[in-house]
Amino acid sequence: MISLQPDFCDIEIPEKEHYSIEDYSSSKARWCSGCGAHTILHSVQKLCTDEQLPPEKTVFVSGIGCSSRFPHYMKTYGFHGLHGRAFPVASGIKFRRPDLHVFVITGDGDCCSIGAGHWVHAIRYNMKMVVLLFDNSIYGLTKKQTSPTSPLGTHTNTHPTGSVLPPINPIQSTLGLANVSFVAQTVDWKPAHLNATLKKAYDHPGLAFVRIVQRCPIWMRENYEPTVKDPDAITVLNHENGIVLEENALKKFRHIQEHDPSNLVKAREVAELVKTTTPIGLFYQNKEAIRYDEYGAHNLGVPVEDRINAINSLMDKYAI
Ligand code: SF4
């Protein structure tokens, strides 16, 4: 007889007294030199260290793409899955194991194209997890095909004369979804803002969606270099309930716009700024949005033992 044991996930692992950044670092990252993913990896490892997340209680789930190699470089649990399928895997993990710290790593192709259906419903389910959308506006792993966020007219291998459809705005799209509870944007080359955004996302009680504008110097250098080099190209969204930077860090930005992240209508207006500038900060937060993982934590009213007995009895039907 095949049998699941009710206590299969209750093994006690003694926790270390202190985790250093090395406790989260696995093999050497194999992204290209200058790729923005390196700084995001470092920032995430810093967050894990600052929050002292036990590695055996932390899991990174990814789909397919350059960014999705991320779990290999974390010394935590990881699941490098199928293209576009990070959200349902992460949702399943969180639903069954609400005690775990769950992170989703996805790219613009992974999230906004093949995984778009899962993106919509993950936002609506609002399970507590941090979602990092590494948006380089190109399919980098497969060597420069048009992605759903490629700017109009981008010359790629699939559109040699220039892409013909307007890009998806992931911030605007997410802000339009039912039960959305946290939407932020940052860039990989401003570490103070990146770190503060990750911390704010981690502290959010539901699903925190963070789009990170990410440099791909191999295939999209022309797309990012003007923003990286021009101090006027970024607008910081500022508010006491938003992503708060220290005064010295804030002073480095020339354009600062006050924005109250509790105002969803205004957040949608601010998301339109992407046509003229790169807005970074917290667009929207609602800590009271309904969380589906809270139903999972209560096992939908059915004790774990009863559910496992039901699965065992079903499996027995097919056992030889
Ligand atoms: Fe990074 Fe671009 Fe290289 Fe992929 S192709 S690893 S996104 S620089």
From TrEMBL:
Which molecular-function annotation in GO is an example for this chain? oxidoreductase activity, acting on the aldehyde or oxo group of donors, iron-sulfur protein as acceptor
Alphabetical keyword list: Oxidoreductase
Q: Where is the Thiamine pyrophosphate enzyme TPP-binding domain?
A: 64-211
Alphabetical GO biological process terms: cellular respiration; small molecule metabolic process
- Residues forming the Pyruvate ferredoxin oxidoreductase beta subunit C-terminal domain are 255-294
- Cross-referenced InterPro entries, in alphabetical order? 2-oxoacid:Fd_oxidoreductase, PFO_beta_C, THDP-binding, TPP_enzyme_TPP-bd
Concerning Pfam families, the annotation shows: PFO_beta_C, TPP_enzyme_C
**Signal peptide extent:** none
Superkingdom field: Bacteria
In Swiss-Prot or TrEMBL terms, this protein is called 2-oxoglutarate ferredoxin oxidoreductase subunit beta
The organism's lineage is: Bacteria, Pseudomonadati, Bacteroidota, Cytophagia, Cytophagales
